[in-house]
Amino acid sequence: MIYGYIRVSSDKQTVENQRFEINNFCEKQHLQVNDWIEETISGTKNYTKRQLGNLLKKVGKDDVIICSELSRLGRNLFMIMEI
C-alpha cells in the first residue's frame, strides 16, 4: 500500500501543491498512491495526536508513506527522527 501524506499548518495553505509534488514523483517512479491522508494541523503537535500517528500504527512492512518534503512530518529533525 502506498500512502500520500499531506499536512498544511493553516487554513490559508492548500493541499494542491503537495498533492502535485507527490503525484509527480509517483509518476516518475511508476507508483500509484492508494490512499491519501490530509490534515490541517501544526507540525508542533506530537505525531501521535495527528492522523500521522494513526497511519503509522496501521502501516505494514512493505507499505510506503510519501510526503512532499520532510517538514510535513514534523517541525524539527528530532521530531522526524522519532517517527
TrEMBL record:
A Pfam entry, by short name: Resolvase
Residues the record marks as active site: S9 (o-(5'-phospho-dna)-serine intermediate)
UniProt domain Resolvase/invertase-type recombinase catalytic: residue ranges: 1-83
One GO BP: DNA integration
Domain of life: Bacteria
Keyword DNA-binding: yes
InterPro entries to which the protein is assigned, alphabetical: Recombinase_CS (IPR006118), Resolv_N (IPR006119), Resolvase-like_N_sf (IPR036162), SSR_resolvase (IPR050639)
Any one GO molecular-function label of the UniProt entry: DNA binding
Keywords associated with the record: DNA integration, DNA recombination, DNA-binding
Record has Translocase as a keyword: no
CDD domains, per the entry: SR_ResInv
PANTHER family in alphabetical order: DNA-INVERTASE FROM LAMBDOID PROPHAGE, SITE-SPECIFIC RECOMBINASE RESOLVASE FAMILY
Protein name: Resolvase-like protein
Organism: Hallella colorans
